[in-house]
Amino acid sequence: MICRLFGNVSQRVPSLLYRVSLMMKPQVVFVLGGPGAGKGTQCSKIVESFNYTHLSAGDLLRAERARVESEFGQLISNYIKEGKIVPVEITINLLRKAMEETMQKDEKKFRFLIDGFPRNEDNLQGWNTVMDGKADVKFVLFFDCGNEVCIDRCLERGKSSGRTDDNRESLEKRIQTYLQSTRPIIDLYEKLGKVRTVDASRSVDKVFADVKAVLDKEG
Ligand code: ADP
Ligand code: C5P
Ligand code: MG
User: Fold this and answer.
1) Looking at the predicted structure, is the pLDDT value of residue 77 above 80?
2) Which has the closest alpha carbon to 42: 160, 187, 214?
3) What pLDDT was estimated at residue 196?
4) Ligand 1: which atom is nearest the Cα of residue 37?
5) How far is the CA of 4 from the centre of ligand 3 (A)?
6) Which of 29, 144, 181, 217 is deepest in the core (most CB within 10 A)?
């Protein structure tokens, strides 16, 4: 019956589009917190225990920066070193593509941890423009951590990360960007009752115990 109903349609519509239309709407958790709060560390642990795909906006931007044919390599490089937020047109396309590719490979993978996004008003507007109605934002997982702890962790990471922004000069700018641009986004979601806050200044395992409790409750 279903085959008959869709028989004509599937002859005209490309099969990929047909498959996409059958997929679940992406379920998104935004993961925010200062630089070095432990977003990436905790997302890796979540992926081990829950059916989520981890997409880090920073990782996607660094991969795009490294792509030889990219027209944005230099721009991304400058923004990252200066601790500034890359224009959302670039970031949202990377996120959208990564989400689509994940779901096309396995339609059961429709739960995403979007780490380090939205980091400012521009990011949020870009998400609303491109993704409105196409994905559900369940909540914001907020890793709350003092600036000094964040800086110390990034400096420690900088000994081996090879990142151009894990140095004191870039970190001061990144903290400023976090306080001026990202905190207001967290506050905005807080007013909507959509923030789940975890004290991220403790050990990895203690933080994860709280993260697990949030996800066990909320999916
Ligand atoms: P983010 O993605 O928020 O920038 P990371 O997960 O990369 O942060 O963590 C930054 C650095 O701090 C890494 O070197 C990581 O190993 C370390 N780290 C992460 N969580 C903790 C923690 N709870 N306690 C101590 N060090 C941590
Ligand atoms: O999250 P992460 O620490 O990997 O981000 C590193 C840098 O990538 C940020 O300081 C910023 O320059 C850039 N970035 C961005 N927009 C995002 C996420 C990261 O411009 N949404
Ligand atoms: Mg990270």
Assistant:
1) yes
2) 214
3) 98
4) 3
5) 48
6) 29
